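DATA SHEET
Item: assembly model
Revision: 1
Owner: S.N.
Input lines:
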Amino acid sequence: MKNAPGEEPDEALTVTPPKEWAAGVPAVAHALEYSLAETSPLRAGRTLLTMNQVDGIDCPGCAWADPAPGHRHRNEYCENGAKHINDEATTRRVTADFFRGHPVSELARRSDAWLNQQGRLTEPMVKRPGSDFYEPISWSDAFGLMAEELTSLDSPDQAVFYTSGRASNEAAFVLQLFARALGTNNLPDCSNMCHESSGYALHETLGTGKGTVSLHDLHHADLIFLVGQNPGSNHPRQLSALEQAKRNGARIIAVNPLPEAGLLRFRNPQKPRGVIGPGVRIADRFLHLRAGGDLALFQGLNRLLLEAEEARPGEVLDHDFIRSDTSGFDEFAAHVRGVGWSDVLAATGLTREEIEQVRDEVLASERVVVCWAMGITQHRHAVPTIREIVNFLLLRGNVGRAGTGACPVRGHSNVQGDRTVGIWEQMPDSFLDALQAEFGFDPPRAHGLDSVKAIKAMREGRVRFFLGLAGNFVRAAPDSTVTEEAVRTCRLTAHISTKLNRSHTVCGRTALILPTLGRTERDMQASGEQFVTVENSMSEVHTSRGRLEPASPLLLSEVAILSRLARRTLGGTPDIPWEQFEADYGAIRDRISRVVPGLHDYNRRVTRPGGIPLTNPVNEGVYANGVGRALFTRNTAERLQAPEGHLLLQSMRSHDQWNTVPYSDNDRYRGIHGSRRVVLVNPDDMAELGLADRQNVDLVSVWADDVVRRAEDFRVIPYPTARGCAAAYYPETNLLVPLESVAENSNQPTYKGIVVRLEPRTPRPMPS
Amino acid sequence: MHSVEETVEIAVPVRTAYNQWTQFKSFPRFMTTVRKVDQIKPSLTSWTLALGPVHGVFEAEIVEQEPDSHLVWRSLGQRPAHRGEVVFEAVAVDRTQVTVRMEIAARGATGLLAGVPKVAGRVVRGELRGFKEYIEGLGAESGAWRGTIRNGRLRRTHEERQASGVPCWPVG
């Protein structure tokens, strides 16, 4: 067993020039270094060589799709995936002794990285009211505690069941079934904080909540937009697809406030030309966009396309498609023609010439794909922005054809699948009717709470019970101080977890840690060894089968924990075979096949190599948005701007981080080493604000409620961010995001668009 | 570009011949150069060919498809290597004329066909004969896809558009 670090690392901040290429040999070296620090060479080999293979372990990291069976590399993973999976396969262990030596109040002062590095949780633990220590508890007593709390609620709506994207389809289906059988739709998930805006806008306009592209579409696109995303750190395997597209002749336009290494050049470590050669240039054109300027960019672009059509009638727009498949074109066109250039240029920070050059690229391209991530979705006007991207795609018929489409890039392995099988607080009646027909009870119809609403309900004392299926809700949520106060009002919080995190230390009066199997581990149940199923970002549902022995003999699988909790809480009413579900996950999939459209004959089809490619209705010429046609929309938004003396802050991951888990204090692509408490600012803005390199500042966000939200003691780093924009790491800066600052319609927190001022903490340092 | 046109008359109704042609996965059973076909989506197929010792893989987009009438395709890639069409015409109630027209460039997986004189015509003729023997031997199609494709996009009737067999709720 490897030893966990006893104390927090004490490194000095150093800064080196940002990298201009991603991956290459250093990616392999860092992946191996981290993996071997966590586990043995044998275990690392067993995880890595089966990772993302047919019948292997699905990477619990991002949701990027795997190449078709027969076309996968022997090492089908990236640096971050290797770190992530061996972070789970670690031989470090958190035992009852650990908790005896570390009171909860002390753990609450520890960093996210330190908590994670302590290793795998090994037995159920409870923190009782008034105690500052977790102590062991039997599984039976843990279920008893939770069941007692749940059955004593005044209303089932006093319970909240949160799901993270690590949960399998089987666990997610059992959780939503339990919650609805109990009588509540309070099923917030991590989607509420990442791509909710995408789902809302795509559903409204195209009638599908999912992206429309496959890897094949990316490979055969003529032009690919990468908007508000950082594939080099957050979905590195996307770079392989982009490399393939480039070799097929595609051009790529990257749009981002930061010129990330992975947007510029990719050195594929699995190919000789990536190891010893210069690699492949990713972005042919980089638009250094102001944060939140994407809506204005696409409106300007759409206006230029309409003007090009007027100059060359019949040559620019896909009139046949617009006529036969869409609605609302005339109103949209009239609206976009009225968009003023001064507004577009002010919002984007670009020149008109730059946008006209993009128009020319679009006109030269028969097939266009637009990819986007949090840089789009985590703004107040995220939904109008994505609707405008759809307008852009519709104008030239760039949906439903090979090499075209919308590609929201999801960051957590099964976040899409969890929603497919019913984790949503607003599931439609068609799903609830199917659930009723299958299980014989009437599911609640009133919408439940999403993540933001759940925090508000806790704050108002309307939630007594919180269960987290994986994840780190406290750290992922916005307005950290408010969220933490809210969570502490619960009578009981319980987390189904593999590793320690802050959500275990900021908890209800009674708190439970329910340790569970990881994706990497064998899952033996009464009927034999089980596999689980997951859905990637491109709607392919496939199996994942763990290979390692469990970290502790006391671990239960997520399905087992949820099934036992349901049985203990609900007894035999309604009559749901929870025991059978725990014994044989195939029994769950049989039920899913009768409830979820598209997953018929689930057990047979999902075990085929490659699994089940779920059909996207848009690619079948179907727009299930109630209108039956793709919708052009008119979009407006107030320009996001920081008043004088302020900057627009976006939060971001470091390269050495996965969601709320930093693996170290380094971010080598951006040249930041030894500290995460840094704020990246454009040198011209630094000069204007009178800030010096490495100056200590507090970040203070500005919001209508006048509450002072202050993130203390950050160092200012000059960095080529877009003018007026700053960047800093989350979750450290989540406390700056007001709970009320959410995207229109989707209610998604605006982690990428916060007005801040930088308040110096000490006198300016003397120049060295 | 090298042009090829070959025709064969088959003793089955046009609907039967057309339906069988839509079953791309069955092509290796009667075409000697086709090793494997994957239908990625209605308008996108992936083909593995073998011409003697030379193997090649390409993806093709179906640009136009009209039941019992015709199908137009083109290969994908930086410089498309070939394009073609197959036309079905009823010459009698139970007889169908199938015509394949192709334009092949001297590159990619099908480049060999264009590189050697008369090889392309001979190969296409042979494969069409294989198709004829296969479907005449079966007497009935092994499956059918009756969708329509225009400009690379699947077309649906208004009624078909109202129904969808997959989850359509928003995904965050």
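QC remark: Chain B has one domain: 2-138.
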